[in-house]
Automatic annotation (TrEMBL):
The keyword Transmembrane does not apply. It comes from Carya illinoinensis. PANTHER family: OS03G0856100 PROTEIN, PENTACOTRIPEPTIDE-REPEAT REGION OF PRORP DOMAIN-CONTAINING PROTEIN. The keyword Cell inner membrane does not apply. It comes from the Eukaryota. This is Pentatricopeptide repeat-containing protein.
Length: 766
């Protein structure tokens, strides 16, 4: 059933005035969609006819005179209620709207109610509606509207749809949603329109009343509904659901898509912004398939789809490496005459290059330039740079350089700093530092200014290829030219000097950072702590660790392990335990490396009681001993002459542990057994290695040759020499030293010559 035209017109005017005149001092802009909810596509209100306008103005003047006590009400009564008067419910409302305040309008309402011969509820409702509108313009409108609502209930005045449309958001803001729903139920169903439903749904969503909001929408979605959804509904629903994390009941992506689908069935499609926003949100929630369905469903039924929405989906398909669907979407875009733009091709080329599909990216690029398949986009420096970077990343930097020349000559497109950085990085990674420096000189000639990434790329390339001094020289030249390094630059140089055991230079650079006003990042501290610890400079390492904490960073488990290991190597067990206590207080849990470090150190000192206690604690913490754990214990027992205990651990490891012994453990045991002249047992272990698929190395053979020489087991030595030849295990200088001292003395020089023939003796690995 349709709403009377006068009511419909006033609805728009009423709500527009309420929203535009609403004070800006509200604590929370609770109803940000009012500008949409207030602009239903109704015909603009027409001014009253001249005779009505005169009557309204005269009535206002007379009523104000009555209020002031300067006139009697007879003239006003005659004007409004005589049989010849053209007054109507609409005119009563217009008069009330012209009055100075809502309180004066309420007095006019009482006057109408007392003097109107007919006492029509319709007249009273329209007049009361005007009071609502006036109250909405005044300071503190919320309390005034709520007070007027109580007055209407007391006086049994039914609300118009416009009055209810003003009141429902007001009750929602006051968190009186049940009363708002009561207003909805009390309103004559024939008066409710789509605009009213939109307002109610928005209030319900914002109040977290999801079930009731869905029920209202279901009424709108019914086939043949009197109040079907419109474009404002389209805006209300996604806006409300985008804040679903505010509510106790979460709303799934599937529900959102379902609502969008129902809107689509009524010919209401999301606009480009909302569609793009929805696709992006679904993709972020790893619902790319759902996003794909939403976009294609809108396409199928002829909804407006622009390139921005397609680009949003292409971005996430690219991140997922789904090139098949990227191609399908591109084809569909061309079919629907959605012209791909620079962003579209940027997404395609970026993800193709990132996946190593550089040749395919080059094909797309040529099609784009040539206008094939309806594609015609002029490439810019970003697209060229994307391709150049892709070529450099797969080691095709020469092709990248050619492409840079092409962009200049064919497209008059000049390379920028990023373009040069990509090429410089490609040549640095290929070890062609001179070519990289030539490009750096070229960019300076062309007044393409290098940035800190350029500096870091060249410094890093030089350091990786052992040209640390050149890196420092280049770094100093750039500093003098005004291009200071950042934390990454200093970290590269500090790491390079730490790796070269030049800790003094690393510390010098670390101190230089502060002078340059460059605050070290955590990884700079970390690298220096590791370098100092491995160099045995534990006091300096502790000092840097203290500086790290003062800078607001925390030590991680790796650095704690490095410090603990450094203190153990320096025989400062008290300091190592101090680090352990600090770890515990900082909430950093010991890992297997921590335990292995302590087990290794304590085993070497012969403190096996403590070692086994630590191992029990480690297992209790859920950490499984590694081959290094067992190796450290076995080695320590062997060093302390306790070969039987070492063999027991070895046998337990072989039978019950999931960690099988490796070459290192076998070599430790074989060497120790040979030193104790238990050569037969050592030979049996060597045979066992073969059974377990472990290949003896030159260290294994050297230990055996020494043991066999002590026992003068020549035949067994010859067997092992033959086995070395079969396995292509090259002897080293220790092997030759043992055999040269033994075989010629016993007259086996020929055997030695045959063994050496064809071998290239390697440097000792002992």
């Amino acid at each position: 059933m349709s709403v009377p035209l006068c009511s419909f017109k006033q609805s728009t005017v009423f709500l527009l005035r309420f929203c535009l005149l609403k004070p800006q001092t509200d604590a929370i802009p609770y109803f940000p969609l009012h500008r949409h909810l207030s602009t239903e596509r109704n015909p603009p209100p027409q001014p009253p006819p001249q005779d009505e306008e005169s009557l309204i103005n005269e009535a206002v003047q007379l009523f104000q005179a009555v209020e002031d006590g300067s006139s009697s009400s007879t003239q006003l009564h005659q004007l409004l209620f005589s049989p010849s008067s053209p007054s109507s419910p609409r005119i009563f409302g217009q008069i009330a709207l012209r009055l100075a305040s809502s309180s004066q309008a309420l007095e006019f309402f009482d006057y109408i109610r007392s003097n109107s011969p007919s006492q029509e509820l319709k007249s009273l409702s329209f007049t009361f509606q005007a009071i609502f509108e006036l109250a909405g313009r005044e300071p503190d409108p919320q309390n005034k509207l709520l007070e007027l609502y109580r007055t209407s209930k007391e006086r049994n005045i039914p609300l118009t749809v416009n009055g209810a449309t003003l009141l429902v958001p007001c009750l929602g803001r006051a968190e009186r949603v049940d009363e708002a729903l009561a207003v909805v139920d009390e309103l004559d169903p024939s008066l409710k329109n789509t605009h009213f439903y939109n307002v109610v749904v928005d209030v319900l969503f914002k109040s977290g009343r999801i079930v009731e909001a869905h029920n209202m929408l279901d009424e709108m979605f019914q086939p043949g509904a009197d109040c079907p959804p419109n474009d404002i509904t389209r805006d209300v629903v996604p806006a409300a659901l985008s804040r679903r994390e505010w509510f106790g009941r979460s709303i799934s992506d599937k529900e959102i898509v379902g609502l969008v689908s129902k809107l689509r069935e009524h010919g209401v499609f999301p606009d480009t912004f909302k569609l793009t926003q929805l696709i992006t949100k679904l993709c972020r929630n790893k619902k790319i398939g759902l996003a794909w369905d939403v976009l294609h469903d809108v396409m199928k039924v002829g909804g407006t789809v622009e390139v921005a929405s397609c680009n949003a989906l292409l971005t996430w398909l690219g991140r997922d490496g789904d090139f098949e669907r990227m191609n399908t979407l591109m084809t569909k875009m061309i079919e629907m005459n959605i012209q791909p733009d620079l962003v579209t091709f940027g997404i395609l080329l970026k993800h193709m290059c990132k996946s190593g599909r550089v040749d395919e990216a080059l094909e797309v690029f040529e099609k784009m330039k040539g206008g094939n398949d309806g594609l015609s986009v002029e490439p810019n420096v970003i697209l060229y740079t994307t391709l150049i970077d892709g070529l450099c990343k797969v080691g095709r930097q020469e092709e990248g350089l050619t492409l840079m020349h092409q962009m200049r000559s064919e497209n008059k497109c000049m390379p920028d700093t990023v373009t040069y950085n990509c090429l410089i990085d490609g040549f640095c990674k290929a070890g062609e530092i001179e070519r990289a420096q030539e490009l750096f000189d070229q960019m300076n000639k062309e007044r393409v200014f290098p940035n800190v990434i350029t500096l870091n790329t060249l410094v890093g390339g030089m350091c990786r290829h052992g040209r640390i001094n050149s890196a420092v020289q280049f770094f100093n030249e750039m500093r003098s030219d005004g291009l200071k390094g950042d934390a990454v630059t200093f970290s590269i140089l500090i790491s390079a000097f730490c790796n070269a055991n030049n800790i003094d230079k690393a510390m010098e650079l670390f101190n230089q950072m502060s002078k340059d006003g460059c605050s070290p990042e955590a990884f700079v501290f970390y690298r220096l702590i590791s370098g100092l610890s491995h160099a045995g400079r534990m006091d300096d390492a502790s000092s840097v660790a203290s500086m790290l904490k003062e800078a607001g960073f925390c030590l991680d488990i790796v650095r704690y392990n490095v410090l603990i290991g450094g203190f153990c190597r320096k025989n400062k067990l008290d300091k190592a335990y101090e680090m352990l206590r600090e770890m515990e207080l900082a909430g950093v849990k010991s890992d297997i490396v921590t335990y292995n470090t302590l087990i290794s150190y304590l085993s070497k000192t012969g403190n096996f009681v403590t070692v086994h206690r630590i191992m029990r604690n480690m297992i209790k913490e859920g950490l499984v001993p590694t081959v290094f754990t067992y190796g450290a214990l076995i080695h320590a027992y062997c060093l302390n002459g306790k070969i039987e205990e070492a063999m027991k651990i070895f046998r337990d490891m072989s039978s019950s542990s999931k960690i099988p012994p490796n070459n290192v453990i076998y070599n430790i045991l074989i060497d120790s057994l040979c030193k104790k002249k238990e050569v037969e047992l050592a030979l049996s272990l060597m045979d066992e290695m073969k059974v377990k698929g472990l290949r003896p190395n030159v260290i294994t053979y050297n230990a055996m040759f020494k043991g066999l020489r002590e026992k003068n087991f020549l035949e067994k030595a010859f067997d092992l020499m033959d086995r070395m030849v079969e396995q292509a295990c090259n002897p080293d200088y220790i092997t030759m030293e043992v055999l040269i001292e033994w075989l010629p003395v016993v007259g086996e020089t020929e055997k030695l010559k045959n063994f050496v023939q064809g071998y290239k003796v390697s440097v000792s690995t002992a």
